[in-house]
Amino acid sequence: MKYISSAQNPQVKILKGLQDKARKRAENNQFVIEGIKELTYAIQAGYTIEELYVTDTARTKNTEQLIIEKQDDGCILYELSATLFKTLCYRSTSDILGVAQKKEHSLTSLKLKENPLILIAEAPEKPGNIGALARTVDAAKADALIIANSKTDLYNSNVIRSSVGCMFSIPIAIASNEEVFSFLKSNGIKLYSAALSEKAKAYTEENYTEATAIAVGTEDIGLTDGWCKQSENHIVIPMLGVNDSLNVSVAAGIILFEALRQRK
Q1: 156 and 202 share a domain?
Q2: Boundaries of domain holding 236
């Protein structure tokens, strides 16, 4: 295990670049995972962990066990001084960081069952919202999350953190709007657009028991016109208070769990 105490160490600079810059993650095809739970989920999902960084102070039993396992796998291990390690972590309770290989997230990589339930998010920008959407899909055990016209790197550290590692446990595809429209049509998946229009119905009035995709847009402008034109099925969540919108992951969760209720 290599020991590092200086923030000027070249390896630390590479790690910091992967944490902070989407360009570096794209160039290296790598990203950083913070926390033992998140790393465990990633490993269970088949991600390759290439490097581990740990603190030289007290480490949890689970972290020590993971270090031993990864030493046998040929993973490169680095031990950092407590002061340096703290500057690299978002959470004060973290005692391990990992560098992993990114995965492919094309539509063709999705393996769908006969009657899938899919959540589509158009152009989400806030990493926290993407992470929350992943948690929602995981909680509902939906078949996939599709991000259309993505505006944010999926492997942004804030996405991973806000998903609590759930983004590793669900199938995720990234594509353009047009590619998603074609994918849904070729697979016979019915599209429901969460959009306020003259023909919109309350989300509870629709039937989601067949192959279904539910599309949600950003909180400020909602879905773009293309989604409304592609779908005859517009759904809304009736709002009873003074506010006229919900957080996108909350709205998605309400509709997904209604679909889940109908299917059971």
Answers
A1: yes
A2: 107-263
